[in-house]
Structure formats: structure tokens, C-alpha cells
């Protein structure tokens, strides 16, 4: 049997070969095109940002809100913090030389350093920084001079550092110049307490600011006050010049209360009555103001002089009297003090010019027992409440008004 083979297989093979040839050519062409594109893109990247530059660290030094601090700058505001940043690397160290000492803190990631306090006024400084990265080590240096204000002010803090105080004691700051920008001053002062409390600032005058909690302090509370006004503009061209931290502790709770109906001062310590003291308060023509008072200065001897608040000594209501064991309750001159001449009236008749007269024994005990910031509450007298701006009448300002502030 003769079998005739159809030449289709051979023809199909030639067709596949032709296709393969064409595909090979296309592959070569595509490969060339891709290589050309890769080459072009690589050249473009190298032309824009050399690869080495991506790895080489650099140091940037700025002030305030990111403004570049240039070498040779003058009139630099001392209170504006300086930041040193390592670009493409981490800081090896930052040194500040010249002028008043200024330190700083490197961030946990090592990429930045920030000055921790204000620079001194009118002083020359130099900052040297080093950073390292994959591409090597970089350095940065800048020298500058800080500005000198025409007027600086200091703030005196009460209570003293390390003091133990009563549960009513506010944080009291007294500036030696009137403060125009009170909010700037408040921002430069930080009050922290352990345990934490809600508190707020209130200004008794243009020179005196107070911070107190919403309620009396809890006994044992530890309070830290940081005043950092140096280098800060407090308004009208006046700059602060303080940078310090002080701490005080709240002692036991001692509250003395007196009602005109009984004319007896009842002293309670940590909830327990420890003494009752008959008293003679302000006579009808000079009644003692009701309200909450705070213990201020305690003086073994003082001369009370009516002329200090505008009443001539030689007038009908004038006086100039030496007294012993005087415990201050207000700026306007109200004291708990020894009054041996009125022992007969104490507990039954008001005869004083507004003070709380007590016996010499009670006056001495009260002076030696009380702390600055202890509370004295007066009720039932026929007069207006002690003003909150009388210096020791802080707690007579309602909390809502105090918290709203008056800066």
C-alpha cells in the first residue's frame, strides 16, 4: 500500500520558525528599548540628586519657628529656643560656648537638639555641632549676639523655696514693673502639683499675679513652680529676667473660724478643734470685713499706725500703737494680735479698728502655731466682704471668675 504524505508538517515548521524569528527580533527590540529607558531614567536621577548626596549628613541650625540662624547674626531674641537638626544622620554632639551657660537636650532619635533655657542678654555665643551618617561626618557652626532690652523685670515668688505652707496658700508672683502682656508672663511660668490639681492664674494688679487651685490644697501636696521669663517680651518693651525653679510643701490643714455672734475664734487642725480664743473685732464704726483671709507675715512686734491707710494719727479715729505677736491677715492692716487692754471685751464686745484682738497668751500661741497660707474665716460682721485683691483675700474671688482669668 502506497501512502501519500501530505507536506503540511514541513510547511507548519517553516511557519513556526518564521514566527520565532519575528518574536526574537521583537524581544531584541523591546530589550533595547527597556535598556534605553533604564539608562535614561538613571541618568535623570543622577542629574537631579547624586546618590552620594542622599547619604551625606548635614547640620541645620534654626531659631524659634524654624527661622535659619545665620552666622554673625545680631539682636537675636534670647528667649527664642534654638534647634540643631541632623539631616540624613544623627547628632554626635552640640556645644554652646560664650555668654551665660546654656544647655540643651538631644531627642531620643538623635536627630535634633533643643536649647533648654533662654540665652543671656547682650552676649556673644557660638554653637558647634557634629552629625554622622552613612556618607560620613558633617559639622555646623554659628556665632551670634543676643539683643539687649532697655527694661528688664524680675519676679519675686512667694512662698520661699522649701517652705511648708497652709492649705490656702496661692502661688504669688510680684513683678517690679507693671506687666502689659500678662498672658505672655503666664506662659513663661509653670505650676505643677503632686497630686495634680486644677488651678488658674488671676491678677490682683499689674504687678501681682496669683495661681491657686479650685479648692484648698490637700495636706502633703508638693508644688513645683518654674519661672522662665528670661528673654521673653512681656509687653511695652519690658523683658523678663528670671529663670529658676522653687518648690514648697502643703502642711497640715489648719482653719480658724470666727462668727460675730459668738466672738470666739475656733482653731481646727486636721478636723480636730485644738483651741478656742475669745476675741474683740472691729467696732461698729470700723467693722471687720467678713470673708476668707490667709495668714501672711508673723511679727513679734509691730507699730500700728492709722496714717498708713489715710487716717491721721491725731484724728478722732487715729492711732499709733505698738503691739506684740501680730499675725497678718490682709494687706489693709487686719491682724490677729495681742491686746491686753481689751481682754475685758474679748468674747463679748467689739472694740478694735478691725483687727482680731486676743489675749497675749492666745496671740503668742497663734503666731507660733500658724503657717503662711493658713485659713481664717470671718462670718457675721456688718461690712462688705474682704476684696479679693486685698492681697490675702484670694479665696473671696468666686472660682468661676478666677478660672476665667483677667489677663
TrEMBL record:
GO terms for biological process: cell wall organization; peptidoglycan-protein cross-linking; regulation of cell shape. SUPFAM superfamilies: L,D-transpeptidase catalytic domain-like. Pfam families: Big_10, YkuD. The active site is at 337 (proton donor/acceptor), 355 (nucleophile). Residues 254-379 form the L,D-TPase catalytic domain. InterPro entries: Big_10, LD-transpeptidase, LD_TPept_cat_dom, Transpep_catalytic_dom. Transmembrane segments: none annotated. Keywords: Acyltransferase, Cell membrane, Cell shape, Cell wall biogenesis/degradation, Lipoprotein, Membrane, Palmitate, Peptidoglycan synthesis, Signal, Transferase. GO terms for molecular function: acyltransferase activity; peptidoglycan L,D-transpeptidase activity. Pathway: Glycan biosynthesis; Cell wall biogenesis; peptidoglycan biosynthesis. One of its GO terms (cellular component) is extracellular region. It comes from the Bacteria. This is Lipoprotein-anchoring transpeptidase ErfK/SrfK. It comes from Williamsia sterculiae.
